[in-house]
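A common beginner's mistake is to predict each chain separately and then try to dock the pieces by hand. The better habit, illustrated here, is to supply every component at once so that their relative placement is modeled jointly.
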Amino acid sequence: MKKVSLEGLQRFRERTRVVMAGRDPEDSYGFVNPPIVRGSTVVYQSLDEFMARKARYMYGTLGNPTLDALETALNVMEGGAGVVVCPSGLLACTLPLLAALSAGDHLLVTDSVYRPTRNFCATVLGRMGVEVTYFDPLIGDGIEALFKPNTKAVFTEAPGSQSFEMQDIPAIARVAHARGALVLMDNTWATPLFFDSHKAGVDLSIQAGTKYYAGHSDVLVGTVSARTPELYKLLRSTWETLGVIVAPEDAFLTLRGIRTMPLRLKEQEQAGLEMARWLQGRDEVLKVLHPALPDDPGHALWKRDFTGASSLFSIILKPAPHAAVAALVNDLALFGMGASWGGYESLVLPFDCSAYRTVTEWKPGGPCIRIHIGLEDVEDLKEDLDAGFRRMKAAM
Ligand SMILES: *Cc1c(COP(=O)(O)O)cnc(C)c1O
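With all components supplied together, the output reads:
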């Protein structure tokens, strides 16, 4: 196998790049994958080497070969200037905010944001003296009216966590850049394979790698990709300053996960769409929230900007009492009930956004359930939900 440089990788197509990136058998004693390198101390050969701080690795908190391999592979997928890896997706949301903001700055955040990100804004950013204004995810370039002289960044997420509103990221980025503000985006739903966020103008692009990257519900990890070398420097120095190194086993598992991610995503996209359409045809379902469905309000934006859909969407049930919803979800054989997603297994999660929206109203018209479709056979998944709907009817 001939050694391929990072530039050389560019001549290959995306799937090939995901398989090739961040692998150098010469550096791995001939093995296909990089070794898991554990360690705090790095020893130096001489006083001069130590004084010059020139070794490839300096200390455990500053990186190691396993993490290097992952960062390289992620950077090839993201197409930016550099990636940092964090020990959770939540930290990947909060780290770039800490990197970008100072006391006295103003931040715009989508009202449909992942709830723990909102919690960080209300607590830590509040104490830091950062002012936060929430915006309607459908605002588009109307966001201009919310800018203040001290607006430093806009935090976006598309589609919205749980509620799946699409955002016009390129339009928001045009306004923000004209005002000298940075655009952050939580791009976990689409991953860089289905939405090229940097090309759309996103400066700092976030992934909860816990989801499709790792892909097996066995790792907590997050990543942030910077669009420009200057932003990467800022991000990297904040990462180093905070000491948020990810364990090498987790870096290794994430790297292992992304090798098969294009295949898993392709399969899960199709299965998710099939389940979404099947649910649209059910009597018990009022609405399916999935931007890849032609009648979804976000479909035009999704079609314009995204190249695929992942397997997470929500349904709104026709009004039903609590006991009937419980009868539906309690005894499912294949769908677990729980947070997180992006693994190989299917999940349901009842939710209600109304308690934490501040500038938009959440009035869905019935009980809401978020659904993640895994890699099971869709016919089995349909039968499982069909039995659930029959239990639900019996409990009405
Ligand atoms: C899960 C999730 C996160 C956080 O990831 P963790 O690894 O669970 O901390 C962030 N953003 C979105 C959209 C998520 O779904």
